[in-house]
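Page 37, top half.
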Amino acid sequence: MKSVRLLIVDDHPLFRRGLYDVLSSEDGLEVVAEAAQGRAALEVMRCLQPDVALVDVNLPDINGHEIVRTARRERLPTRIILLTAYDDGVQQRQALAEGAAAYVSKEVPPGWLVDVVRHVAAGRYVVNRQVMSEAERIRWLEDHAAETSLSPREMEVLRLLTQGMSNRAIAQALDISEQTVKNHVTAILRKLNLDDRTQAAVYALQRGWVRLD
């Protein structure tokens, strides 16, 4: 049987080593590369095309969500499991809507992580220990439409907001009206159940959605 080729992406050497030890000891799983930064991970995906990548959401350069979006945009074949310290519903929906195959807490038991890798390699999706087909993933996202994830434009607004930019500056940067920016900010706060821009910035930074250069 052909081995599942894996890429491990995490900037903490000890955690990365732990993942390697757990996964490489399993029959049918082969760790073919490791990376400590997001851009390096994308280069590995482009060159080696591993079957599955386990990617930390928080990385020193670009975060896991950005990696998922880039891989999807470039139609890279590697299926991505996002690993996170913040396992909440909004992030789960965001990850699966963007194209991640699974969203898993870093506190996951080793045995279940191995199962997740095998499910993802077989073309399935995993969230909250729920294993889904592509059709079931679509239905799952539709069922949570009332709590929908942020749109790509809202993510852009959130990224600029986190950099301390005013509504006027964001409008100029994105070539949209200031009122449209206000509407996006209102939608972001409603979807994330937050009260103000500062809370939104802290929320995004803590969860690795955006980084301050």
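Page 37, bottom half:
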Amino acid sequence: MLLKELASLFTVSSIAGDGGTEFTGIQADSRLVAPGDLFICVRGLISDGHAYAAKAVEAGACALVVEELLPLDIPMILVKDARYAMAVIAGRFYGYPSQQMKVIGITGTNGKTTSTYIIEKILGDHGFRTGLMGSVQMKIGDKAFPMAHTTQESLDLQKNFAAMAENKTDYCIMEVSSHALDLGRVKETRFRTALFTNLTQDHLDYHKTMDEYRIAKGLLFSRLGNGGIERPQDRSYAVLNADDPASAYYAKQAGVEVVTYGIANGADVRAQDIRITAKGTAFRLTTFLGEADVQIKLVGKFNVYNALGAVAVCLLEGVSLEQTVSSLTAMLPVEGRMEAVEEDQDFLVLVDFAHTPDGLENALTAVKEVAQGRIITVFGCGGDRDRTKRPKMGRIAASYSDYVFVTSDNPRSEEPEAILKDIEPGVHEAGLSAERYEMIADRRTAIQKAIEMASPKDVVLIAGKGHETYQIIKGATHHFDDREEARSALRSRKH
């Protein structure tokens, strides 16, 4: 592609140097530049790409996209917003791949990952070729890849859409984070359907207020239906949780048909007669295509919501109610989401990703509905993130648990003990006595002690990290998997 071809993509831009320069790849990370690449100087939250332009040139970059001209002997295209330009250029360079499939985006504080997996299973069982992007992994056909972000930067996103298109993917089901929406990572992505799960406190270190957080997620719905449709099969939908107050705002943002799901309020897809056990959840499903009795292997009321949203999406895609229910019945728990760790013990050990106040309360509510003995909770809060949720999570853990181990999550640059002290006032607020909780900064030790003290029929909930296989301490990433630690503790207990 020629540098001068980019000029037509922007009303306000200019080229310094040879506009006939041809580039063969695009990068925004100077460490990844190969000869012939175009390097885009993006001003990020931590660093400024302009400061790495010289390194990119040394590595073989043949041209730059900049917001200010640099003293380098290399062709440049000057734009007003390099981050926006990156999304636009990536879409054009990779041939607008999202238009070659149906993209289903899921946004919300909790439930995004489970919802993507349920939708992927139902559509896959129906014979569609699927791709998946989310916080656990990316899947293209039968191949899986690790993910660094819930939603990738626009360059990687468009590149991977292109790989999915080459694989003849019918549907890409992806998590869409508020950060990604606010930073424009999904610009140049055409969404078929947007699903909203719920809105509760999270990421206030970035968005500052709940109103800003709500507005950021609304950007996904405002993208729907703006171009009109030429064929009925190209219609888009907003699938909203009728029981969440934020849905009223998102319904106004969406220029497409709104389909709702829920439990407490009237909805197009709803669940009644919910029955929860330690093995799963049963309910009566009512939809715009009929009714059915459903039994899923996922535990908890919050997973009923995840199932309902997925059902609504798949029914809109033409999957029959019978096929949808059949797939739901066969659906296994998602990695790190209320995942049981079994070593033939006589009590239940669950690992869950719950790392927000609402997520922790959902997990503990589900546990309380099935627990026959004590509830022993191990949890912490991440460092360098919203501090206001720490005492709230302490209060929630203490309110639902018989015993609590307050420990580290990913402390990052903070001192673990300082994070624990931020959590402790919430434990006191809930009235938990000193004999019923411990502050243990070392997460491995906390997990071991929780499992050592468990008695028959107790439930040990290890919350916060779920599928993660690492712990970030003082800038260093260490291998750490709650499931491995729990399994090791269970085996040690036997001996």
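Margin note: The CA atoms of residues 348 and 459 lie 5 Å apart.
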